[in-house]
Amino acid sequence: MLDGVLPKHADLHKFAAQGKEIEGQVEVSKMPRLLLSLVDNSGTVSYKLKFVFEQGRIPTVRGQVQANVQILCQRCMKAMSQDLYSDIAIGVVRNDEQAQQLPRSLDPLMVESDESVSLLEVVEDELIISVPAANYHAEADCESSVGFTSQDDDYIEKVPDEIDNPFKVLKSLKGKCD
């Protein structure tokens, strides 16, 4: 097992043949695509990856990634802490036909026969997928919700008793046609 070392590039077929396991940490700041969803580049990603052959010699990457990052609360627009977690189950394929034959439990990763894969990008992809689409503090912790209720009279627009309805004319015409 390799501890703390995430190879920049890996031959997943070779890693699966060797039954490699990799465990360690990497800084969030090394993941530029993930940073697009975050408030800052602080945090550390923990990963544990195992490379094996499954079902008819399919090179497979299994494992977990997790991180605690700072994302933007969409209610108060302040930073908030968010735990990201993802179970990894990837089957390495060479074409669409092989991808369609993968079991449903595996996500396909298209790789040419002699192509090496960036494991950092694989880990980053899994974290990007696990970022929630909508991010909010708990209501009690959110600064924008303090002191505001939907019943505040200052925010309720008074509705006149009778509104000019442009369709009144049509109602009167309907009665004449009958």
Automatic annotation (TrEMBL):
UniProt xrefs under InterPro entries: YceD, YceD_bac
Alphabetic keyword roster: Ribosome biogenesis
Presence of the UniProt keyword Electron transport in the record: no
GO cellular component: cytosol
Pfam families listed in its UniProt record: YceD
Gene Ontology terms: biological process: ribosome biogenesis
Protein role: Plays a role in synthesis, processing and/or stability of 23S rRNA.
Family assignment from sequence similarity: Belongs to the DUF177 domain family.
Name of the protein: Large ribosomal RNA subunit accumulation protein YceD
Organism: Sinobacterium caligoides
